[in-house]
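queue> holo job accepted (6-O-phosphono-beta-D-tagatofuranose)
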Amino acid sequence: MILTVTLNTALDLTYRVERLVPHSSHRVTTVTERPGGKGLNVARVLTALGHDVTVTGFVGGATGEALRAGLNGVRDALFPVLGSTRRTVAVVDSSSGDTTQLNEPGPLITPSEWSTFLTSYETLLTSASAVALCGSLPPGVPVGAYAHLVRGARAAGVPVLLDTSGEPLRRGIAARPDIVKPNADELAELTGSWEPLPATRAARRRGAHAVVASLGPNGLLAATPDGTWQATPAAIVSGNPTGAGDSAVAALLAGLVAGDPWPKRLASAVALSAATVLAPVAGEFDADAYTEFEAGVSVVQHADAA
Ligand code: TA6
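queue> job finished
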């Protein structure tokens, strides 16, 4: 099975308003509540694609109960904690498709909760074909947590993908994960460069086997041991971009497990991201659009550089 780790799970609330205007009050037209946090979205997408997936991470309180109740067939090995699972709020402006995201910090994880989690992670790795470590860290979890979990996966011989930001990313990438998937902001923060190509290559030199940068409407840029590729969608789609990066992670994991060549993995990841923008919430995608988009993705190889 594919294992996804979401240490800071969330109950994702999506509010749609006609038009978001600063300093004014709004009527919400629709409210959607879903289990969230990046690894949970990855797992929901992979489950919909027919993969055998298990999610792990921390859950607690009434929000944790609501999250669990919404899992709908996604297998979970979520670990109960005393604190309450956070909420995240995405406010979607229906007129423009622009989204404003508000993410709570999450519950305080105690040292004993963290150490019990580590024991269960080691057990889960024994039946995993790949593992994804996704999202922010809740308070109390050490900043080097992902580096530790990457090393654990490598020691168990399980390929590992890392999708996080800031210092946890900086430390995690040095532990040599198989794939790292930063977005443009995360890449710039990590490398100090806003130029995607040199930044992606510089990020790879920090220790990852491959770095796949998600560049929003410009698709994906991948620096890998087999070469560097830019994968671009045929057209820009508008909708709700929340979770598009999580769907790219889902496709990259599926391609990793299948042993697909990089151009195929990237085409699939770009198409699945775009099909997610068409869905109303993160962790879901428009299945017909996914098939249609995949054929239209352009994948171009860059000349090799040191
Ligand atoms: O990528 C979208 C999303 O996964 C939302 O579902 C929301 O839960 C959030 O990101 C969590 O991100 P964070 O970086 O705060 O862990």
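queue> The pocket of 6-O-phosphono-beta-D-tagatofuranose is lined by residues 8, 10, 12, 36-38, 41, 88, 103, 135-136, 242-243, 245-246, 282 (CB under 6 Å).
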